[in-house]
Amino acid sequence: MYKAGLVGVTGYTGMELARILATHPQIELVCATSRQESGKKIEELYPFLRSYAVGSVVVSDYDAERMAKECDLVFLAVPHGTAMASAGELHAKAKELGKSLKIIDLSADFRIKNAEIFEQWYQIKHSETELLKKAVYGLFDLYEEDIKKADLIANPGCYPTASILGLYPALKNGIIQNDIIIDAKSGTSGAGRKAQVPTLFCEVHDNFRPYSIGGKHRHTPEIEQELSLIAQKEIFVSFNPHLLPIDRGILNTIYAPLAKDCTAEDIHGLYEEAYQNARFVRVLPLGRLPETRNVRGSLFCDIAVTVDKRTKKLIVTSAIDNLARGASMQAVANANLCLGLPLDTNISHAPVCP
Amino acid sequence: MYKAGLVGVTGYTGMELARILATHPQIELVCATSRQESGKKIEELYPFLRSYAVGSVVVSDYDAERMAKECDLVFLAVPHGTAMASAGELHAKAKELGKSLKIIDLSADFRIKNAEIFEQWYQIKHSETELLKKAVYGLFDLYEEDIKKADLIANPGCYPTASILGLYPALKNGIIQNDIIIDAKSGTSGAGRKAQVPTLFCEVHDNFRPYSIGGKHRHTPEIEQELSLIAQKEIFVSFNPHLLPIDRGILNTIYAPLAKDCTAEDIHGLYEEAYQNARFVRVLPLGRLPETRNVRGSLFCDIAVTVDKRTKKLIVTSAIDNLARGASMQAVANANLCLGLPLDTNISHAPVCP
Amino acid sequence: MYKAGLVGVTGYTGMELARILATHPQIELVCATSRQESGKKIEELYPFLRSYAVGSVVVSDYDAERMAKECDLVFLAVPHGTAMASAGELHAKAKELGKSLKIIDLSADFRIKNAEIFEQWYQIKHSETELLKKAVYGLFDLYEEDIKKADLIANPGCYPTASILGLYPALKNGIIQNDIIIDAKSGTSGAGRKAQVPTLFCEVHDNFRPYSIGGKHRHTPEIEQELSLIAQKEIFVSFNPHLLPIDRGILNTIYAPLAKDCTAEDIHGLYEEAYQNARFVRVLPLGRLPETRNVRGSLFCDIAVTVDKRTKKLIVTSAIDNLARGASMQAVANANLCLGLPLDTNISHAPVCP
Amino acid sequence: MYKAGLVGVTGYTGMELARILATHPQIELVCATSRQESGKKIEELYPFLRSYAVGSVVVSDYDAERMAKECDLVFLAVPHGTAMASAGELHAKAKELGKSLKIIDLSADFRIKNAEIFEQWYQIKHSETELLKKAVYGLFDLYEEDIKKADLIANPGCYPTASILGLYPALKNGIIQNDIIIDAKSGTSGAGRKAQVPTLFCEVHDNFRPYSIGGKHRHTPEIEQELSLIAQKEIFVSFNPHLLPIDRGILNTIYAPLAKDCTAEDIHGLYEEAYQNARFVRVLPLGRLPETRNVRGSLFCDIAVTVDKRTKKLIVTSAIDNLARGASMQAVANANLCLGLPLDTNISHAPVCP
Lengths: 354, 354, 354, 354
Prior knowledge:
- 4 copies of one chain form a homotetramer.
- The first copy, chain A, has 354 residues and is of the alpha/beta class.
- Helices cover 34% and strands 19% of the residues of chain A.
- The first copy, chain A, contains 12 helices and 13 strands.
- In chain A, a hairpin with a 4-residue loop joins strand 12 and strand 13 (313-320).
- Chains in contact: A-B, A-C, A-D, B-C, B-D, C-D.
- Chains A and B meet through strand 7, strand 8, strand 9, strand 10 and strand 12 of A and strand 7, strand 8, strand 9, strand 10 and strand 12 of B.
């Protein structure tokens, strides 16, 4: 039984991590931290976890030394900036103790390989540039072998996960032009669990709205970095997110002009080939389209390809559960891999529909 | 008091027409038809209209002669194909009676000016090609004077209303290239009130999905026809709709490459100028974005312009209430105009938020 | 044109008041206050009010003197305790100025006639006991004549409105025993617009939960006071509220043992008789039940009576829109009455369905 | 690996059974039937099950002989009346074949032990009265030992499960009077997957309504039968259901006058004692209340006890997932037990929240 720590248990990603670890046969959550909820049991915060062992874990203040000592693995589910500092401390403490400590960071702090680009988009100084070099981007469909050997994993962002998986076969095979538009829609859990008026029920329910339109969203450089690596040239995207009145789910509609005269059948074949060994990517048959409910509570990314013949565009639609595939369940997949467990340990749940 | 008839009271557009007419000071609904609900009072179908005079109107079978005799105005809220036949009959009966009868068709039957294009997309023969020539496209922001004089008004589709208003100033001023993508999202009332599994609550709630992706949706030729008229050249669009888990509301995110080096400020100025006399179009200040709730239950179309400088695109977001501005309230606006009433009679409601 | 002030524009009741007054033909909102939003235009807070004159009103700090001078009428949409202090100040200033100033308080401060009972349930001292004696309970269906003459109106609570109207004919006619259970369900706008985790979208959506079960809710003494006045004896209720994942709407299911052998038909007759002159109460035909959507955005209270013959109980179901009938639209009805306007001025809207 | 059949795969209970069996380590779904969908793969109906073996099962017409031959266990997820006939046939075929065949009926056909009462409430003749005598009521918290030995299990109704578990300790200990009111609220999946207007998204969303008020709902005799067995005297209830705009979840608020002077602490103690060995009943600490989301997708029944001291009533609130605990997951629990597997095999999922 591996012992896991969780820094930041009060957000939705922390909550979802606690939920997934509640039934994990080989990873036990032994330590969960939060400044404001310290002293409470997890089941007091999250009554749905009552009667699971994890529910009895008492939330504590963050203590890097204790965590480094007690844990084999730490999940960081805190805001960017904070995560970077904790990763640095934990890494240093583990080194002092001469032990292996795997760190999985759910924030953006170790996703952007170029610290300058990070600083420009996130408007803070990167204080752990040495550690940044060691971080592995945790998209296991593409980087499974690197993840297995990593000590520090930058867990991908939710929008980037759905975007990169949606475009990987097209860019790898050079069938689209470098003029990509991503029209993204996310469930509200992606906006976090902070008390604020714009995400109150009555502000979101029966409503739909865009935000950060026109290339302003911070997931843009993460998407461009990964797409450029795949295409082996610099790729730019126009990334435009919207807020959905649903709990979980991202659906991206991705537009790109075709670079060659491809049929939908050709492209579908390339997608099936690219993902033939990717258990958690489901390329849908031609004519079928993804829905967020079909992946709810699961690790799947569902992808459909469509060709708009009249305007000569490839249209890819991809769907994930932003909390599961886009954050915590992907983090547990990465934990499984770097601990030497089978990828799918405790995360092969069937989607919850309806 | 003008007397109005309503052919097809059982769908959501018929329901919304009954609702709006319930309090109209100068149009009285005297006749509402439905095959399956004939004999019932409107308030039995729609208990929310109890205690209004309209609630006591008894639903009847469709009878063209009676309608032509009793009414000054008829709304057709029946499926395409059926609407065309009724319009033909009503027009003929009115001629026989030597009286004026205004017809407002909420179906697609008289929207497409070229019958061949209509037939190709709707897969039925157009039986009223003479009448088609007389029909006026009922987008009052652009065609108010024509509507005032019309006998037959083709009430615009919901998606086209939000799309055309969103693009009109840009195309009129020639600032975008002919490579337009419309990523459209609609509330579920747009899918109609027919008993069918895909629009059951548990199939739509907490879900989001695309449909008719890749240029397959029938609103495509309507949008292209009107945009081409504005641009005075043939315009093609990639129109891609999605289904939102909300009752009312359409939000379009529209992408087009800039044709010239325009700033957001320039474009915002052109939009404000184009709509300076359009009471029911609200061009939002730069930095603000539309939300479906801000137009719920109203005739407004809210529009924002954004420039993605990195990828040199104009991004227009436009929002309407699909049932109100996209169908029945727009139909009443058209009715007001062609009866010689002020445009806003009984339809200047403030949006219902939350 | 009467001039109105609004103390507390940032909550949902303030927002709804601004919305209703936006189109009122005889009351103009000239002054709206908020500490945190002072200096902004109303349309910046509430973009759905853009293009209405009310949208251009600049929010200001609360200033009793200015308000008393400029206004004929003030709505208090601030928390209990605060409202009491403002009412006292405004009343005193108006007296100094020798002018009439109508005050409509949407808080609980002047609803409970007995200050001791108020203090016991609300845990604060009542500082305006003299003013309390002059306050009229603003349930216009029962107290229209008193309201017309009042200077200070205690606008009823949302749950009490639906409860009292649901029970009035039964208690007045002595057909039920004094053992009443009210199982109440409210939309989330009733919980206010404060930034807090329990009313975030992801905490409320696709969820349902009871709260304040077992006679702990502060609306209990208000309901009991009014029911006791109607029954002319002391009435106790077990009032138990629940939170619904909807924006607007309250539905109460009220249980009471029958005191006599009455049929449903008998009771229905008594209800129809009791409300024959109440334009905004709709007693449904036997066999029909209310739904929150049937009253959405309107002043109606829909009521159905059912008899459970097997267990000899009267079951009343009553529905209102908590923001409209349960707060701001009822406040405008009271404003109309005390200014000498027809009750229904600008508030006879048809419900917004769907 | 046990082989299971499923009669009726197209409803929500069939869908949920397929979902749960998709990952079951010891029960394999080998045969699923539906008249209208025969010939399609399960993954065509339910794309969320794509990539699971169960997704490839081809839906077939119902064939009792084949099913009896191939299966160790059959789930009946068809309407009442139909289920009874299938159970009779399957039982007879198995007897002919000399093999054991476990039948788990999710309909109401074998729940009411007295055929006359069944016929009176369901308005059809009971054709399998001999088989009815052998049926065991599948509420495993109370009847685990009987279920282990049963060949035919009547899977409890959704409302009855939450009602009986909520009242069991109170009735067993004689602390309440025989005057019970159950105010029940259910998610819309409980209304089935049939195409019909009243459960369309736009009829349910942002709405709340009662139905079958006043002792008319068919779950009444089932609840009364089981409560009478527990209390060992005839119990009557006033059962009143309401429809919630959520997918999954039932919350019952149950009222009963106290028979003795009990404190909340006393009663809480009795509840904890009664359920000390019931793994899937969670008696909440005093002061906590259940929420439907806390049990979503799980087998838990969460129960809280509250005493309204002012009116001397016990108020029990109980929550389940109507599709999981109230139907298909409870059916799999019963399947596990009657096949000799541990109760919780594959159904100890943590609730999915949010």
